[in-house]
Amino acid sequence: MDDELRAAARDGDFAALSLALENGADPRLRDGDGFSVLHCAVMNFQPYYSWSYGPGLSPVPARAREIGFYDCIALLVASGADVNARLQPHCRTPLMMAASDANVPAIRALLAAGAEVNLSWRTDHPDIPGRMVQSATALHWAVTRGTAETVEVLLAAGADAKAETQDPIFGSDSRCRMSHAPTALDQALCRHDVLEYQLVHPDVDWAPGERENASSTSTMIMRRMVPLLVRAGATISERHAEYSCYLRACLDAGGVRAYERLHRTTLANILKRGDRLPASVIPKIVEFWAHVGWYAIEHDLLRNDGA
Q1: What is the DSSP-derived secondary structure letter of residue 274?
Q2: HSE toward the beta carbon, residue 184, CA cutoff 13 A
Q3: b (16+ CB within 10 A) / e for 13-26
Q4: Second label for 45, Cα 20 to 30 Å away, from 59, 98, 192, 296?
Q5: Among residues 237, 232, 242, 284, which one has the least CA distance to residue 263?
Q6: Going from the N-terminus, what domains does the chain have, and what CATH number goes with each?
Q7: Taking the CB of residue 210, how many other CB atoms lie within 10 A of it?
Q8: Picking from 58-72, 135-149, 207-221, which range would have the lowest pLDDT averaged per residue?
């Protein structure tokens, strides 16, 4: 890869990028480590993100964070860069790298440039010669290391909530209640388990602010990420239902759509009772209407646990 092209992509410098391309730099070439120019661009723009603890302050210069995403990525793709280039190990595309870094601006830019949201390949097992595994999708990377917003953007672009991976990097952690975690929902719940284990384990050495971030990330997973996956069609099994009243209610109702219909029917029946409703009922109606029940169920569970 041309050094000037890589530096321009790394810095988000559209003018320098344009000049490098005009001078003949080939955006299809890789560097010595196998990175494409789009991988370099995404790495440079990534916010600092700890998959366990949540987003923090970015070490990337402000100019690189604020400009260049759409223009630089669009120019590189228009000039021949492969927006779906794979990086080994784990067949990571620029979109997957952005998803794992909770880099929503990069995700939007790559999707606008034509990145395929559900790419996955049969590939060699990284540790077992001769064995093939299904690589992860961008959604798998998002749920294990990203945020609810990352997941929401990918789902809105058509990410498959039922997709499975056999990549061992996404295997179940010993601190997780599940023995294996092939789907995005599995991985989100496993991540929650790991965080909860760390929060109660006395030997974890927390840096300033990390424990608070771990707690908020754990809450984000159950309150936002899991409902997003469920409403997008993630398959719920008995092992998932053990994690929350919301997942149990969805499973018992026969799926999230049936669960939502049940809540709407319940709300309609309450409203048919007459013109006057007890004051204590109004907040419950609002909660159920606004969140289709899931928030209220989890809220009640937490409130009862703390009583």
Answers
A1: -
A2: 37
A3: bbebbeebbeeebe
A4: 192
A5: 284
A6: 3-167 (1.25.40.20)
A7: 17
A8: 58-72
